[in-house]
Specification:
Helix content is 14%, strand content 34%. It is α+β, with helices and mostly antiparallel strands and 180 residues long.
Length: 180
């Protein structure tokens, strides 16, 4: 058996990424070779930032959107799903593509909560190989209460337009973000 250098193999088979660090063998099989001086431990587990629905979204649509932004993780293989708290049923949700950001990755996922589920807490569950002790992260989202959202002074300030009135024209997800 004749061995070839990795660069020669990647060029001849056209199956490595441009850096030469990632090799695709077949659909669903990917090998990532990391430099020996890099340690990709738990410091490269997904870092969540949550965004809660705005008062405007709740009032106008009788629904709310929970958004979970996951950043600074490596490698890019990640599984995200949503459940109601104290339930084992996986809920229908949406997610964006996993995106490369320098040496790490990011992904976002969101759940639209209908009026009948607004009184329930929900959780975004994240599976990644660098999670602490290999345990899935469970990011808890509070129940959506119209009366609490309407009395939130931070959101009221964020929703004011230049004429002094309030309105739903601003991006609602940025008004109630919390970072963990």
């Amino acid at each position: 058996m004749k061995l070839r250098r990795r660069q020669d193999f990647c060029r001849s088979c056209n199956q490595c990424d441009s850096s030469g660090w990632i090799k695709i063998f077949a659909e669903g099989t990917k090998l990532i070779v990391t430099p020996p001086d890099r340690n990709f431990g738990t410091e490269f587990s997904p870092k969540p930032t949550i965004f809660l629905p705005s008062t405007a979204e709740i009032d106008l649509q009788n629904a709310g959107t929970h958004l979970c932004l996951l950043e600074n993780f490596f490698p890019d293989v990640i599984k995200v799903h949503w459940k109601e708290k104290n339930s084992n049923t996986i809920l229908e949700s949406q997610q964006g593509n996993t995106m490369n950001t320098n040496d790490t990755y990011m992904k976002f996922s969101w759940l639209t909560v209908t009026e009948k589920s607004m009184d329930k807490e929900h959780k975004c569950i994240v599976r990644h190989e660098n999670n602490v002790k290999g345990v899935d992260q469970e990011i808890l989202f509070p129940s959506i209460k119209k009366e609490d959202a309407a009395n939130n002074p931070i959101e009221k300030a964020c929703l004011k337009d230049q004429s002094g009135g309030t309105g739903p024209q601003l991006t609602p997800y940025l008004t109630k973000g919390k970072e963990f």
